[in-house]
Amino acid sequence: MRRLMMSGILAAGALVAPPAAAETLTVAARTVADEKAVFATVESVSVVPARGRIGGTVAQLHVREGDSVTSGQAIAAIGDEKLALQMKALDAQIDALQAQSSQAQIDFNRIEGLVERGTLPRIRLDEARTALNVAENGLRARVAERAVIQQQLNEGQVLAPAGGRVLKKLVAVGSVVLPGDPVAMIAQQNFKLRLRVPERHARFLRAGDKIRVDGAEFGEQISRIGVIELVYPQIEDGRVIADATVENLGEYFVGDRLRVWISGGERTAFVIPSSYVTTRYGIDYVQIRQGDRAINAPVQRGRDRPSPEIPNGLEILSGIRAGDQLVQP
């Protein structure tokens, strides 16, 4: 082990002969975004309550916290015994009026025949027609009242006002509710990130700016890129609030805290392709050309900074200077 450590130390300043066709790169400072880490929370675009339209007792509850629902889905049923009794009373009245209307129709047909044969005066026909109209109109009125009661029974179904996920149940089976009382809170789909940025960085924050979320927050290797959609004009507790969208953010945990990198201005840095860096015994090296030879120089690497010019860009914090000639190992 000691021999390996000594060989690593000697390799730091060792001169090596670069291959004749080795690629070289001139180190130059470039402007990069000075990213700052802030915390953001996963929030819904809006949280809407699912309300009951009638009063009564909750007879059924079809959802629980965390369930996904679609717009118009029945999530609960509210029952009212008075409506059922009114429905039975109207059914009985409709049956009676139907019988009365049928008898009035029979009487009208009989009197109409007798009037045509001259047995009865025409005034009796007018009286029979009036009785028939009264019976038919009474039947239609009771049918309309029954339709109103049926609609109230149908409104006992509590429907989801929007598609999303149930955050919280506010009632249980057997609870008594009034018209308009909320039954459940539903977070709409298409979750967003709500950033709280210190006000000293607010002047660098603009709608349309890109943000970066570490892939480790999602158990992935690659970072995700999002876009700031809205920057709120009011500062709360020394922080600026902004909303951002990130694809495949997830739609389960509301209030989950994530670390997000935002642009805090610009600065100069040394960015080179990662292929110019080699690692030995935990130490990173680059080969710097000196004359006809190359020297292994230890460097301190920063984070990956891919760009269209350097797809595998890597920031180097120390160990190289502007103008150094790097050799491809």
If you average the pLDDT, what whole number results? Answer: 81
Strand tally:
21
From the 3D structure, determine the CATH topology of the largest domain: conserved putative lor/sdh protein from methanococcus maripaludis s2 fold
Q: Percent helix among the residues?
A: 10-25%
Number of domains: 4
Task: Describe what you observe in this structure.
The chain is of the alpha+beta class. The chain folds into 4 domains: 2-30 and 267-327, conserved putative lor/sdh protein from methanococcus maripaludis s2 fold; 36-46 and 188-265, Efflux pump adaptor protein, beta barrel domain (Elongation Factor Tu (Ef-tu), domain 3, Beta Barrel), CATH 2.40.30.170; 51-77 and 159-186, RNA polymerase II/Efflux pump adaptor protein, barrel-sandwich hybrid domain (OB fold (Dihydrolipoamide Acetyltransferase, E2P), Beta Barrel), CATH 2.40.50; 81-155, Helix Hairpins (Orthogonal Bundle). The protein is 24% helix and 42% strand. The protein has 3 helices and 21 strands. The strands form 3 sheets. It has a 6-stranded antiparallel barrel. The chain has a 4-stranded antiparallel beta sheet with strand order 4-11-9-6, with no helix packed on it. Strand 18 and strand 19 form a beta hairpin. The model is unreliable at 1-11 (pLDDT under 50).
